[in-house]
Amino acid sequence: MSSAMYERMRANPKFQELVARRGRFAWTLAFIVLTMFYGFVMVVAFNPASLGQPLSEGSMLTVGVVVELFMFIFFWALTAVYVRRANTEFDSLTQEIVKEAWKENK
Amino acid sequence: MRRLTQLITALGLVAVAAMAYAGGPLEGVTEKQATNWHAIIMFCIFVTMTMGITYWAASRTKSTADFYTAGGGITGFQNGLAIAGDYMSAATLLGLTAMVYGQGYDGYIYMLAFFAGWPVILFLMAERLRNLGKFTFSDITAYRLDQGKVRTMAAISSLTVVCFYLIAQMVGAGQLIKLLFGLDYNVAIFAVGILMMVYVTFGGMVATTWVQIIKACMLLAGGTLVMFLAFGQFGFSFQTLVEKATAVHKLGPKLMFPGSLLADPVTAISLGLGLMFGTAGLPHILMRFFTVTDAKEARKSVLYASGFVAYFFNVIFIMGLCGILIVGQNPEFFEGGVVGAKMIGGGNMVAMHLAKAVGGNMLLGFLAAVAFATILAVVSGLALAGASAISHDIYARVIMKGQASEATEIRVSKIATICLGAVAIVLGILFEKQNIAFMVGLAFGVAAAANFPVLILSMYWKGLTTRGALFGGYGGLVSAVLFVVFSKSVWVDVLHNAAPLFPYTQPALFAMPIAFLLAYIFSKTDTSVRAGKEIEAFEDQYVRAQTGYGAESASKH
């Protein structure tokens, strides 16, 4: 847990790559969630009538219900996408970084 | 950060009414009902099961790591269930069903607002929390800062949050149990307090987590069953259900339109801030991130937790709509037998009445037992979080400076749990007749203003120093408490003054910027040698946060 280990990891270009790639990915996903949700709330605030429209003539399924159900599923799917990529790609990159730092240590 | 602010604004717009509804059982005194034997028997079965688990857990709880974090050996799936359990309280089941029943589509919007915070917590916080933390979130804030001072500060604000939240839960529990089980208020308070002490002192985090998991499964199963039985009456056709519901509901076709969302934007935004960042600053929720093996499992737990929460919210939506027809049109559930009069037991009872209508007394008893179990599980988690702040932060790290043996540390945390249990019982009885709706808002406000800013800055901002953290933390704590004391809910409603000194009831919008600003100013102007070292130490902390190298690993059994 020595500072030297951290120093070596930081010097590894793979570490910079990990931080940049994961950071970009996480912020992109967060941005998608926040924009969609915020956009939805703006519609709720300023054009509520549009959400009450039926999907097709005579249907009781409204645009609002469908949009919201979609967001529940889509947001959850995004968490699944993040977890999958972080638990495979990012984690193996992390392991490489730690392993290489250990090797230099010896 | 700007995107976050936008989200908060959005959340704020929709959160107000949700809290108003969810706070239902906390307001005022409920009527005692006839003793409900089905519910009591089913609850006894739940208690027997959880006691068995506690007995088993006690044999596995030997080290401090076992006690605080179940040895870090909880899997992502189990932890996901436990987090979902922490999130889906009795207020969620009763309050949100009642909201869909009363407001239709609005209730669905609020549920999305509650849900949307989870992906953001996963993307931006979960990994760093797991990689840096050990037992309490102060492990993260004090990572490179002055241990004694920063931990004391974090422990004080954690205990403040825990106490307010405990009072709210205890009083809510007493009222709800009186209503659902027909038990005396004081009996209910003692039952909750004593059961909680047994779970936590003997079983530690292992038992607390399993109580939460069992309860989450019961809640999911019970809710799903009620939804199926009720929805089946409409041939599982959303079309038929909505057609009939809009035909009888007082809102008519407006039932499926967004309704009265923008009552008072400032209060709404402030509450939204408190809800979202409060969740990310509640000690008993943060503690859940340390019970898993590594960052991989921490991510999985959020995936499972948010999946269960999203599923359950949709179940509640259908339950609420079915309630409009099955409960709302049945005179049996209204006082005096008149449809449209005051609902028996109050508006929050829709879910319970629905269970009775579709599944008889057995299902009602089951759902009532689930509600009791829910409160018990949440109270246990709170007590454990409070006890760990006392024993791990204050006793082991501040007083003994890390020299305490594990055995004495565990003993201190058990004594702390019993003291917290006793305090909870006494406060629960003292506050019986008080309107304690403001307590939940206060707990979230303090969590958002005192815990969250220092926590997020310590993870993301290199420049944070001990001086900045102390001013930010204490500043957030004091301002959140003062804003609430001077607001209508305490200054007028409790202290009976004529007019509030502070016009808004929710502190977060005002207290959070104060905390961030103080932390920033006093860090920036801190030119001491120690501050320089603390800023340097961020580099190592950053590598650990990103890679998990040096993070606490699971203890071997």
From TrEMBL, chain A:
Keywords: Membrane, Transmembrane, Transmembrane helix. The keyword Transmembrane applies. The keyword Transmembrane applies. This is DUF485 domain-containing protein. GO terms for cellular component: plasma membrane. The chain crosses the membrane at residues 25-46, 58-83.
UniProtKB/TrEMBL annotation, chain B:
Residues 1-22 form the signal peptide. Its main location: membrane. The keyword Transport applies. Keywords: Cell inner membrane, Cell membrane, Ion transport, Membrane, Signal, Sodium, Sodium transport, Symport, Transmembrane, Transmembrane helix, Transport. It comes from the Bacteria. One of its GO terms (cellular component) is plasma membrane. One of its GO terms (molecular function) is acetate transmembrane transporter activity. It is a multi-pass membrane protein. The chain crosses the membrane at residues 36-58, 79-101, 107-129, 150-168, 188-211, 218-236, 266-290, 302-327, 362-391, 412-430, 436-457, 469-492, 504-523. InterPro entries: Na/Glc_symporter_sf, Na/solute_symporter, Na/solute_symporter_CS, Sodium:Solute_Symporter. It is found in: Cell inner membrane. Gene3D superfamilies: Sodium/glucose cotransporter (1.20.1730.10). GO terms for biological process: plasma membrane acetate transport; sodium ion transport. Belongs to the sodium:solute symporter (SSF) (TC 2.A.21) family. This is Cation/acetate symporter ActP. It comes from Dechloromonas aromatica (strain RCB).
